[in-house]
Write a structure and sequence with these properties.
Strands 1, 2, 3, 4, 5, 6, 7, 8 and 9 form a 9-stranded mixed beta sheet that branches. The protein is an alpha/beta fold. Strand 8 and strand 9 form a beta hairpin. Helix 3 runs antiparallel to helix 4 and helix 7 crosses helix 9. The protein folds into 3 domains: about 35 residues, no CATH class; about 230 residues, no CATH class; about 45 residues, no CATH class. The structure holds zinc ion (ZN).
Length: about 375
């Protein structure tokens, strides 16, 4: 591969063993399957405990470790809890599937199109089994919609709107995985205000949103980790056909105060609790702990705003511009893998169709990417290694 791309004869590699020797003796590179439950904080603290000889500092790190463990266990207990009056939904950003799906080494280095953005919602506690009745997969292609807060909030809104709720349920608990920065969460909270005030049946009195501590998304929970393998056991929804993507971001900006002026520290909150107020409004409180309730519920809407009179935000039309260079990379990769005639090959017709729509829609060069799940893209690379 190197030789093929090296135009200068002098720089071409003559002996494979020369490079092989350097590679095997000068680098300390290992290949293996990454452990899915590795959390950087856990690794850091374990290392600190191991390396410290001073008893006092060692003790300090051991306490930190115990506290950290306690926090993530508290989150999982929330995820597992089962009660008559409680319905749990958990949402999970899955790794994106790439186009084209080829095993070539070159695929590591070229830009691929994330053809499917996957976002799953599971109904029920993590102790319940997985079936199409409780696993819902929202999927769309990279050139159709972004994978941003609007899309995620719209998928959750759709799921909440079609829920068949038992009369005994008064609380809906949403457990989110670590995807997306905290700052994006205000958009989901805005959407939930709308849902609670305008869409939810009268028996729903409270909505909770719970976030895991950094480093521990759902992956350690084997049930959720296995969703990827159980895609066929889910009900699939596609934006445009099954649901609309609404501009919940603009909605949040229109009706709510900026997170900095809320009555609790937004960035530190792990739990957000929305309740109906007597005046047909919604009260919100944020808690930094998973178990103690110390904050008080207050309005976060702008002065004079009643969420009950808010209107549904506008829809976001389908169609996302992709960088022309990226599309070219995909074409090159297909050519490399299937040969010059890939455009006429039957097995490539799917790619051919998708690529046609892509170039036909947009030809933009420099676009800002509004990725919601940056962290999960690395995972995919790790998996491939
Ligand atoms: Zn950890």
């Amino acid at each position: 591969m190197y030789n093929n791309e090296q135009p200068d004869e002098l720089l071409k590699l003559k002996k494979k063993t020369f490079f092989q020797k350097i590679f095997t003796t000068e680098y300390n590179i290992g290949f293996g399957t990454p452990t899915t439950d590795a959390c950087s904080k856990c690794i850091e603290l374990k290392g600190k405990v191991k390396n410290k000889t001073n008893a006092q500092t060692k003790n300090k790190f051991m306490t930190d470790m115990a506290f950290h463990k306690m926090r993530y266990k508290a989150f999982f207990r929330k995820l597992q809890e089962k009660r008559e009056d409680l319905l749990t939904l958990s949402f999970y950003c899955q790794k994106n599937l790439v186009l084209p799906k080829v095993q070539d080494q070159t695929a590591y280095y070229s830009r691929q199109i994330y053809i499917y953005n996957n976002f799953s919602i599971v109904k029920g506690s993590s102790k319940d089994g997985l079936s199409p009745e409780n696993v819902f997969c929202y999927t769309w292609m990279e050139h159709e919609h972004k994978k941003g807060a609007n899309e995620i909030a719209s998928a959750v809104f759709h799921q909440l709107s079609i829920l068949e709720l038992l009369a005994s349920v008064s609380t809906i608990r949403l457990c989110a995985d670590g995807c997306g920065g905290q700052n994006r969460n205000s958009i989901i909270i805005g959407m939930l205000h709308y849902f609670l005030a305008k869409v939810a049946p009268p028996n729903i009195k409270e909505i909770q949103v719970i976030f895991p501590i950094t480093g521990h998304s759902f992956l350690p929970d084997r049930v959720f980790a296995s969703i990827e393998k159980k895609l066929q056991h889910s009900t699939i929804f596609r934006p445009g056909t099954d649901l609309n993507i609404y501009d919940w971001k603009t909605f949040a900006e229109t009706y709510f105060k900026k997170t900095g002026s809320w009555h609790f520290k937004f960035n530190e909150a792990k739990r957000f609790i929305l309740t109906k107020s007597a005046q047909q409004n919604v009260l919100l409180r944020g808690e930094t702990s998973y178990n103690s309730d110390i904050s008080t519920g207050k309005l976060i809407v702008k002065k004079g705003i009643k969420i009950k009179s808010a209107t549904l935000p506008g829809q976001i039309p389908m169609g996302v511009a992709l960088k022309a260079v990226k599309i070219q990379d995909v074409k090159n990769l297909l050519k490399k893998h299937f040969g010059e005639t890939w455009t006429t090959m039957e097995e490539c017709s799917f790619y051919q169709n998708v690529l046609e729509t892509m170039t036909a829609i947009h030809e933009a060069e420099d676009l800002e990417q509004d990725e919601f799940c940056e962290g999960h893209e690395n995972e995919q690379l790790a998996d491939r290694v």
